[in-house]
Design a protein that fits this description.
Blueprint (H helix, E strand, L loop, with lengths): L6 H56 L3 H12 L6 E6 L3 E5 L4 E10 L5 E11 L1 H51 L21 H111 L5 H39 L7 E4 H16 L3 E7 L4 E4 L1 H26 L5 E10 L6 E8 L6 H6 L17 H11 L3 E7 L3 E9 L4
Parallel strand pairs: 6-8
Antiparallel strand pairs: 1-2, 1-4, 3-4, 5-7, 8-9, 9-11, 10-11
Helix pairs in contact: 1-2, 1-3, 4-5, 5-6, 6-7, 7-9
């Protein structure tokens, strides 16, 4: 340990600093008092001298004997305490010597025999603080030397006593405590800090430290025994828990696989049944209506031609106009029926394309065709709320199961539309949201991938929701609007096709779902 950090050093430092401060303060006060007293004595001597010289100067000035004035002034200058004399009357204003910083001034007054006083001028005798310093410098030197010697003596005494009574014992205790090996306390020997068995704080600290180490040795031995027993029990219990955990993990993984397979099978079976029923029920009557509308158009044209033929060219013009109006109305209604049945026919075809019930084996999939077919089914529900932007830079072809890929498209697009609707409801903004679907190519042959991005401007998801979006039965929708299986099923389908699906979302801004699928057979 550094000497500057020891208690003894701190004690000596505080003691010496305190004594030094007090010594400097007392010495300064003493020197100042001596200076003031010496200056006061000098002022008194100067006053007495001025009184002594006043009478002679007054007579010389009254007699206009300036030679005598000069003699008296020069005589005053010969004195050690006088540095200057100033005489001033109605005729002269003269300074002998120099003007000092200590002065004694007297007025020159001549007194006649009849007691009449005549002021004739004034006299000032000057002294200097240099003279004061010359008087006190010897005493100052003695005072400073005495203070320094006292300080040095006290420092040496305190240093010797402190080292003997404090520094050495504490240093010994510190050295011994630092050498104690906590891992091998059995080799500990009682410490002796050199107090010579005197009863003081250090001896009590020495005995307390030795007793503490002995108790620590006993506690360490007991603790080692307890640790050995505990380690054996922990090892045995850990082995049992690990076996149980391995078994539970295996069962959980099997349960997850079974659950995913069951959910996907049920979803696909229900979807297939629904689409098959709708397609079957709508296909036949739609074909009847479509064919009948075609025949009706043809028959109307033939009937119109026949009626005008039978009427002949001599028929009234109003007759022609009346029949022309009636036939135009019938032709317009027939055209509407034909267009409506054609739209129903296209919807049925899209449903069949979406479900691909007749395609249960792997085959080439035109991704863009599947997306467009899915969009035609969804647009009718969200056409006033969502703007669908198709940005198909490429039309990739992969190998897989078309119905399953269409299910992924359906899940992602419906989720995006519902997120947009939720944001519109939260913000009360009736501006249509956007869903941009973009296809592009990534990588180099032969490891190129088709990249499909679904970017919406919906309500977005939190970080916690993004981390759980593919968990079975997890949903951010209100109860009754979702089961939490759509994205879980989609994740399984994309993995089945050797691809990947990622999510990037910001709350309040929107979500981007990115699919990456290998081109060709993998």
């Amino acid at each position: 340990m550094q000497i500057q950090r020891t208690l003894a050093f701190q004690l000596l430092k505080i003691t010496f600093s305190t004594y030094l401060f007090i010594t400097v303060l007392i010495t300064s006060i003493s020197m100042y008092a001596e200076w003031v007293q010496t200056e006061q004595f000098l002022q008194e001597d100067l006053a007495k001298l001025s009184q002594s010289a006043q009478k002679g100067i007054t007579l010389a000035v009254w007699d206009i004997d300036y030679i005598q004035v000069d003699r008296i002034a020069e005589g005053l200058l010969d004195l050690p305490i006088v540095v200057g004399v100033a005489i001033k009357d109605q005729k002269i204003d003269k300074l002998y010597g120099v003007q000092g910083d200590i002065e004694e001034q007297h007025e020159l007054i001549h007194e006649e025999e009849k007691g009449v006083l005549y002021p004739i001028g004034n006299m000032t005798i000057y002294s200097s603080r240099t003279i004061v310093f010359d008087r006190v410098k010897h005493d100052y030197l003695i005072t400073v030397v005495s203070a320094v010697l006292k300080t040095i003596a006290l420092w040496l005494i305190v240093l010797f006593v402190g080292k003997r009574l404090i520094t050495k014992p504490l240093g010994g205790l510190t050295t011994v405590s630092q050498k104690i090996n906590l891992d091998n306390l059995e080799d500990f020997k009682e410490i002796d800090v050199g107090t010579n068995h005197q009863e003081n704080e250090l001896s009590l600290l020495e005995s307390s430290f030795n007793a503490m180490v002995h108790k620590l040795i006993v506690a360490r031995q007991e603790l080692n025994q307890v640790n050995q027993n505990l380690e054996y029990k922990i090892e045995q219990r850990t082995h049992e828990l690990q076996e149980a955990l391995d078994e539970l993990e295996a069962q959980f993984r099997q349960l997850q696989i079974t659950q995913m397979q069951l959910v996907q099978s049920e979803k696909m079976a229900s979807l297939g049944t629904l689409v098959a029923g709708i397609a079957h029920e709508m296909n036949n009557p739609t074909s009847f209506v479509y064919a009948t509308a075609h025949n009706l158009n043809d028959n109307l044209a033939k009937l119109k031609k026949l009626i005008f033929y039978l009427a002949g060219d001599e028929a009234d013009e109003k007759f022609h106009q009346l029949f022309e109006q009636r036939f135009q109305r019938l032709e317009r209604n027939s055209t509407i029926i034909l267009e409506g049945s054609n739209r129903i026919k296209n919807i049925v075809q899209d449903l069949r394309t979406f479900s691909r019930l007749d395609e249960t084996e792997k085959k080439p999939i035109h991704i863009v065709d599947g997306i467009r077919s899915t969009l035609r089914l969804i647009k009718t529900q969200y056409k006033d709320e969502v703007e669908f932007i198709e940005d198909f830079q490429i039309e990739p072809v992969i190998v897989g199961w078309p119905a399953e890929m269409n299910q992924v498209h359906m899940n992602v697009i419906v989720n995006a539309c519902q997120a947009i609707m939720m944001k519109k409801k939260q913000t009360e903004d009736h501006t249509p949201g956007t869903l941009r679907i973009q296809t592009s190519l990534e990588g180099q042959a032969p490891y190129q991938q088709a990249k499909i991005q679904f970017e919406d401007t919906g309500c977005g998801m939190s970080k916690e929701a993004q981390s759980r979006v593919f968990d079975p039965f997890f949903t951010t929708k209100v109860p009754g609007e979702g089961t939490g299986l759509g994205m879980s099923i989609s994740y399984g389908i994309i993995e089945k096709h050797k691809g990947s699906i990622t999510v990037h979302s910001e709350e309040g801004k929107g979500t981007t779902i990115t699919l990456r699928l290998p081109l060709g057979e993998r």
